[in-house]
Design a protein that fits this description.
mainly alpha, YcfC-like, 71% helix, High frequency lysogenization protein HflD homolog, cell membrane
Amino acid sequence: MAYSIYDRTIAFAGMCQAVKLVQDVARNGNCDSAALTTMLNSIMATDPSNTVGVYGSEADLRVGLESMVRDIDGSSSGSEITRYLVGVMALERKLSARRDSMAQLGDRVDTLKRQTTHFEILDEQMLSNIASIYLDIISPLGPRIQVSGTPAQLQLPHVQHRVRALLLAAVRSAVLWSQVGGKRRHLLFGRKQMLEQAKILLARN
C-alpha cells in the first residue's frame, strides 16, 4: 500500500505530541489533558480505518503538529524533544525485531481495552496499568530513555505513570510511522516536506 507524506506527517506528529507531553509532565507535573487522552487512546487503536484514525482527528494532534514546527530544530528544548524521538525510534526498532515482545504487547493492550469498560482513560489505575506495560515490555529492550525534568516531580508516582504511559504512546506512534513507510532518511532529507505539511494541517484546524 502506498503511503503519502500526509500519513508520515500524522504519525510523526503523534510521536512529537507524546514526547512533548512527557517533557511537560516531567517539568510541571501535568500536561494538556485532551492531548494526553488522545495519546492514551491511540495505544488501543489497533484496527484504525486510516492513519489519522489512530488519533481521532487532525485537530487532536495540534500539540504534536505545533511541536514539530517549533521544536524540531537546534533550540535547547527542541534538542531534548529530538533526543526523546531518537530514543523512541530506537526502542521501536528493537520491539519490531522481537516477535515475542510484540505478541506480549498485543495481549496486554487487549487487556487494557477490556479495562476501559471499568475505568476512565485518565483514571489513576488506568494510567498505572498503561505505565506497567511500558515498564514490563518496552523498557527492558533498552537503551533506557533518560527523562529530564524537575527532580521533585519525577519522584511522584502519578508523574512516573504519566511519563511511562506517554512513552508507550510514543512507541505506538513510532510503530505507525514505520508502518506508513517512515524511515530515518525521511527525517534527514524529507523533514522540510513534513514541516510544510504540518503547517498546512495547523492552518486548517
